[in-house]
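User:
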Amino acid sequence: MKLNSQQNLIIVIFLYLQLISLKTFSAERSKTSFQAGIGYNYSSEYLKTGDNSTPALPIINFETDHFFLKGLTLGYKLYNNWPQINLILNPYMLEIDNEENTYNEEMRKRRRTLHAGIQISIPFPFGIFRAQAEQDILTIHKSNLLSLSYSKRFSLSEKWQLIPGFFYTRQTKTLTNYYFGIQNNEVKPNRSQYTAGNSYVSGPMVNSIYILAPENNLALNLSVKYQFFSKSIKNSPLVKEDHQISSFIGIMKGF
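Assistant: Predicted structure:
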């Protein structure tokens, strides 16, 4: 993929923010939480175009007074009281290759992109409500999305925490059609023209953290997410299932 000058500038800014956050991490080490580890993610196939799972991957989480990196999300704490307001950079990881199998032949490649946005977290005694608005800044799908979620943390023992929740993501017609629409020049006998509309993805999720060795800050993390697709996605010729199950297991060590 060739990047224009605007896209190159955005990537430079993203890398610069990461350098700033790492400098902040070094300068504020006494005030920083840092975790590293390795995990494995598996997602059931919902596309006709191939496997959507991810192999073993590293885990790096850190947080300072000003910056945080949680998974793939880099953030800056704009307001750290109530509510909590963050500016975020977040990759949008969906990609549909046109060379994975014969069903994809003569299709344009649907590419990953980078989103920038704002995240608002409102903690209550009965849980945390979070709203997140993101915009594509690499002009891949040239659109935006809105996510809402709620979660509640339960301490089942001194070592075991369970965090169930629910999420809802609203995607614009432009975004949905970029990934799931079929243009006239992509039509084949087994792949009809399709124009997608606004869509949403929603479902329950649960995260579990178990402390394996308190003296070594070693923890086991397990999460499961079940997501349902709205009609605009599940009616696409590229989609074979109306849902997807994603799971993650990993071991993390705090420093």
